[in-house]
Amino acid sequence: MTSQIKITLPQFPKGFHLITTEIEKKLKDYNHTGLAHIFIQHTSAGLAINENADPTVRHDLNLAFDKLAPENMPFYKHTIEGPDDMPAHIKSILVGPSVTVPVENGKMLLGTWQGIYLCEFREYGGARKIIITLI
Amino acid sequence: MTSQIKITLPQFPKGFHLITTEIEKKLKDYNHTGLAHIFIQHTSAGLAINENADPTVRHDLNLAFDKLAPENMPFYKHTIEGPDDMPAHIKSILVGPSVTVPVENGKMLLGTWQGIYLCEFREYGGARKIIITLI
Amino acid sequence: MTSQIKITLPQFPKGFHLITTEIEKKLKDYNHTGLAHIFIQHTSAGLAINENADPTVRHDLNLAFDKLAPENMPFYKHTIEGPDDMPAHIKSILVGPSVTVPVENGKMLLGTWQGIYLCEFREYGGARKIIITLI
Fold first, then answer.
1. 3-state helix, strand, coil in chain C (%, to 5)
2. Rounded to whole angstroms, how far apart are CA atoms A90 and A121?
3. What is the mean pLDDT of residues C6-33?
4. Which residues of B sit within 8 Å Cβ distance of C?
5. Which of A55, B8, B90, C89 could form a disulfide with B69 if both were Cys (CB 3.0 to 4.6 A apart)?
6. Which chain A residue has its CA at the smallest distance from C77's CA?
């Protein structure tokens, strides 16, 4: 039995944001055991799993990704949507559009320090659509 | 019920290439709801999801990945298969060998701008084998 | 039917390490066809798939990742756990916490040159907990 749950996250500023609670709330209604596949339907944002406690990790990740995919590289041809757009595509490929997490009786089996991140790579990315598939 | 579909893609030149249509064609025969896991059986190519419209995104990604994993780094020991080989392994780790996409009645639930990419990191990578698992 | 198998890997030194055999041993007890999702419950280590033969690939990957996420970047705020900690978080996001592999009759359908890597990004990361979900 497959369940597909569609959610829309409000606009977040550029950066890495914890959304574990939003996902947990949705899973509570299903007493599922198996996997939760969480997928973002966008090409300039991603999903990842990392440190859920110290917010300086998320601060540093934002700046580290700016170094990995800088704005205004002289070879960029895809520039019409603003200087943050092409870096956002590169960063999205690096983190990926989905995370898959083992689930037991409706509870994600995350490690002690693991949280789920929305990785917003645009300055004004707008609302972001996510599909959770339980399998 | 699990279905596993094996496909072979012809050789593509080094770069990022849209293969959404090839995958869609294979899914058409199955009225599947759940997930499609698409896996490449190689270590110097990868699969990713990104912008399906403007080809300059794929052009820029190719050059951005050349910056992330340059050829001829002085510390490389794995050099016998040519200057594009070790960078191809690094890039493959960065994008990953698989993408997983939610599917409803045989149709992938991709966002408006999302397409599936073959990321070919060798100059002459040859044909590439892919396994699609429907679950 | 879902099976979840929990394993603990002993401490490995910083670097990329083949753990294909450890995973294969666990799958042998299940005559599974479908997917194996392998998930690490940590934020400073990851899992990946790459070259299973020449060990120089793993040597070069280690140094290439040190270039991608250097220690002691002046903007790092998350420094209390040592110079290798923030780079470990960045590298973990880049490789991801899980790999998903097609499986047929208990055998992973890896390509000829593919092996499963534990990517240990801390100098002394300790034992690492992994959950394999068969689906």
1. 25, 35, 40
2. 9
3. 97
4. 2, 4, 37, 39-43, 68-69, 73, 75-78, 86, 89-90, 92-94, 96-98, 100, 129, 131, 133, 135
5. B90
6. A56
Query: Is A134 a residue whose pLDDT tops 90?
Result: yes
Mean pLDDT, chain A, rounded, equals 97
**Which of A62, A41, A66, A36 is closest to A50 using CA atoms?**
A62
Chain B contact partners (≥3 CB pairs within 8 A) = A, C
What span, in angstroms and rounded, lies between the C-alpha atoms of B34 and B20? 18
Tokens (6 digits) for B16: 């990022």
Report the amino acid identity of residue C100.
Answer: T
- Interface with chain B: mutation pick from A38, A39, A47, highest number of B CBs within 10 Å: A39
Nearest to A50 among C69, C75, C92 (CB): C92
CB pair distance less than 8 Å for B56 and A69: no
Of B95, B102, B135, the CB nearest to A39: B102
Residues 6+ apart with CB under 8 A from B111: A40, A41, A42, A43, A129
Arithmetic mean of pLDDT, B27-42: 96
State the complex-level ipTM: 0.97
Q: What is the pLDDT of residues A71-106, one digit of tens each?
A: 999 999 999 999 999 999 999 999 999 999 999 999
Query: For the packed helices C85-95 and B85-95, what is the interaxial angle rounded to 10 degrees?
Result: 90
Residue C87 token pair: 């780079």
Query: Could you read off the pLDDT of A44-53 as tens digits, one per residue?
Result: 999 999 999 9
User: What pLDDT band is residue C2 in, cutting at 50, 70 and 90?
Assistant: confident
Q: Do B57 and A93 touch (CB under 8 A)?
A: no
Contacts for C123 with CB less than 8 Å, ≥ 6 apart: C13, C14, C82, C84
State residue C97 phi and psi, 5-degree precision: -90, 0
pLDDT tens-place string over residues B72-91: 999 999 999 999 999 999 99
Look up the pTM and report it. 0.98
CA distance B113 to chain C (A): 23
